[in-house]
Design a protein that fits this description.
Elements (H helix, E strand, L loop, with lengths): L10 H11 L9 H13 L3 E4 L5 E5 L11 E6 L21 E4 L2 E4 L6 H15 L8 E6 L7 H4 L10 E4 L7 E6 L1 E10 L2 E3 L4 E9 L17 H11 L6 E7 L10 E8 L3 H18 L8 E6 L7 E3 L1 H13 L3 E5 L7 E12 L3 E10 L2 H17 L3 E4 L13 H14 L4 E5 L5 H7 L4 E4 L4 E2 L7 E3 H17 L2
Helix pairs in contact: 1-3, 5-6, 5-7, 9-11
Length: 485
């Protein structure tokens, strides 16, 4: 057991959280953790099944005296976002996460923690094991690939889940009960680029943007955090003054994470290197000032590189189009909800950019709790790409989850929380793509709510879970299971 969790309560939840941390389980690499969950269920003598994608469904009979209660499904996803600091040596395909305790939080050392959604997995495993709990018939649904494709939820088959009530354990604010979420769509722009030899005499240099917080592109999109791709693009445009030529640009890792870092290789006329350094330093000062309140660790820098024997650069006309397009692409909050105070209704994230031998590819994601507004912002992003001569591909997207304030399980949850905490919970919608929208389409009439302990900075190496909220979450969940009809 990890020393970081010694003595933490509830002991079973933290035991399983530490066990999960040992198993690599990034999106599309869930085979090992899926098997672990399935094998654990079988070890406890519970009914379990796996679909061909790796999603697991476990059933636990009712406690004595609770047999007449309706079945409830507890749901979370098996995969995690794999992000690390640039200087952290870690292979997410094989290395375990290193848990670290800092006061009232658990983090991972230089990587994402996987509490999104490992805390749900650990909680479900703990309930599966604990025979002392009071509850009706339970199902535990462990879906795969929530973060990059919603593959598990999208491929659920009729009858796989039998419950008509579902508790999604993928929210990140203790004391809040979520009853709705946004839908979304991805928009990919690709420029087939023509490279040419570097005109001599040029000096190779690396322009980098580092030190940003990043974070979840839905939950943190309204925090005003810096976008490394947008920032470096401003630097590259400024370097046009000295005739800098773009060779490559790479930044961001996940469509649903705000990019924290971006690096571009450029070639600068030998006689203009000094001026280029001054431009980059000026950009560093300006952008640090713009983001001083939220991004204290931002660094924009330029470093000369060893002489490149066979350097190549994007042709001038294409370089101009690409940089102009990135500048024009919207990023951040597009519209706030008029109905729910503080809720982001529509947003878009400039997420990832990569350079290959023949192309520069950019990934963006759009979210909204209003279906027609997803269409509108996705069309706008597509139009910007096309005006910038990029080829555009768009995903089918995923549906939102419409709030039902008359939900029977919501009424139970609200009364239960008040009895435990002495105050009303917040009933909210979330600007993120919970699986509830898809599950609701797969199983019409499913009564659903979502809740969880407090997490921060998910999808980034600063991800943390607040220790004291885990026990509150656990007690709340067990009380709901006991009180539900």
């Amino acid at each position: 057991m990890s020393n970081a969790i010694n003595g933490l309560k509830p002991e079973l939840v933290w035991k399983y959280f530490a066990e999960i941390a040992k198993i690599p389980h990034g999106s599309k690499n869930e085979a090992a953790i899926s098997k672990y969950v399935y094998d654990t269920a079988k070890k406890f003598g519970l009914e379990a099944k796996q679909d061909k994608f790796g999603t697991v469904l476990v059933r636990k009979p009712a406690s004595p005296g609770f047999e007449n209660k309706k079945s409830i499904c507890l749901q979370g996803h098996l995969d995690m976002v794999c992000e690390k600091n640039a200087d952290k040596v870690h292979d997410f395909m094989k290395d375990p996460l290193e848990l670290v305790r800092k006061g009232n939080v658990i983090m991972a050392n230089g990587t994402t923690l996987g509490a999104d959604n490992g805390i749900a997995v650990a909680t479900n495993l703990a309930i599966m094991e604990d025979k002392s709990l009071k509850h009706g018939p339970l199902e535990f649904l462990f879906t795969i690939d929530e973060e990059t494709g919603l593959t598990g939820a999208n491929n659920l088959q009729k009858g796989f889940v039998q419950s008509q009530t579902l508790l999604n354990l993928d929210s990140e604010e203790e004391g809040a009960i979520y009853v709705g979420c946004s839908g979304g769509r991805d928009t990919l722009g690709t420029w087939k680029v023509s490279f040419e030899k570097v005109p001599a005499p040029y000096i190779a240099a690396e322009i980098s943007v580092k030190g940003l917080k990043g974070g979840h592109s839905g939950l943190e999109i309204d925090k005003g955090r810096g976008n490394a791709i947008k920032i470096i693009n401003r630097v590259l445009i400024a370097l046009g003054e000295v005739g800098a030529r773009l060779s490559s640009i790479n930044g961001g890792n996940k469509r649903n994470a705000i990019p924290r870092e971006c690096v571009a290789q450029v070639f600068i006329p030998k006689t203009k290197v000094g001026t280029a350094k001054e431009i980059v330093e000026k950009c560093n000062i300006i952008m640090k000032a713009e983001l001083a309140t939220v991004e204290k660790d931002l660094i924009v820098s330029m470093n000369e590189l060893p002489k490149v024997k066979k350097g190549k650069v994007v042709k001038k006309a294409q370089q101009a189009k690409i940089l102009q397009t990135i500048a024009a692409l919207p990023h951040g909050v597009i519209k706030m909800s008029a109905d729910i105070p503080g809720l982001v209704e529509t947003s878009t994230n400039v997420a990832v950019i990569n350079t290959t031998n023949k192309a520069i590819v950019m990934s963006t994601s759009q979210r909204s709790s209003v279906a027609s507004e997803i269409d509108e912002i996705a069309f706008g992003v597509k139009a910007v790409f096309e005006l910038g001569t990029a080829k555009v591909e768009q995903s089918d997207g995923y549906p939102g989850w419409k709030p039902n304030l008359d939900s029977p399980i919501l009424k139970v949850a609200k009364a239960t929380y008040k009895s435990l905490a002495g105050k009303e919970p917040e009933v909210k919608a979330i600007h993120a793509g919970l699986e509830c929208g898809i599950i609701g389409e797969k199983y019409p009439g499913m009564d659903m709510i979502s809740f969880g302990p407090t997490l921060e900075a998910v999808h980034s190496p600063d991800e943390k879970i607040y220790i004291d909220t885990v026990e509150k979450f656990w007690n709340f969940l067990l009380a709901i299971l006991k009180n539900a009809n």
